[in-house]
Amino acid sequence: MLLEYIENAMSRAVYEKLEDGTYAGSIPDCPGTVAFARTLYLCQQELRSVLEGWLIVKIRHGDPLPIIGGLDLNKGIPAGKKAPVRG
Predict the structure, then answer these.
(1) How far apart are CA 69 and CA 14, in angstroms?
(2) 32 is in which domain, residue-wise?
(3) Contact indicator for 1, 68 with CB cutoff of 8 Å
(4) What total number of domains does the chain contain?
C-alpha cells in the first residue's frame, strides 16, 4: 500500500525547467516536497527520495497524511501518538 501511495503521489508531481537549464519538482499534495537537479530524470529521483523522507517524518510525528488516489495511510496511525524511535 505504501508503494502504491508513493507512485500515486509521484504521478501528481509537477516539474519546471529553470532558466539555468536545471529542473525543479514538487508534489503539491505533499507540502514541502521539493527537489532540484541537473536533469529531469535526476529531479524525479531526488523528489522520490524527498517524498519518502517526508513520509517517514510525518508518520513518526503522527501528522496526518493527505489522501492521494483514494489511499488513506492515516488508517492505522494512532492520532496524537508518535511512533517509537529506535536507535
Answers:
(1) 16
(2) 1-87
(3) no
(4) 1
Residue 7 to residue 30: CA distance in whole angstroms: 13
Contact indicator for 59, 83 with CB cutoff of 8 Å: yes
Of 75 and 16, which is predicted with more confidence? 16
Confidence category of residue 81, pLDDT binned at 50, 70, 90: low
Domain containing residue 5: CATH number:
3.30.160.250
Residue keyed to cell 529531469 = 40
Q: How confident is the model at residue 43 (pLDDT cuts 50, 70, 90)?
A: very high
- Burial class (CB within 10 angstroms; exposed 0-12, middle 13-18, buried 19+) of 68: buried
Contacts (Cβ under 8 Å, ≥6 apart) of 37: 22, 23, 25, 43, 45, 46
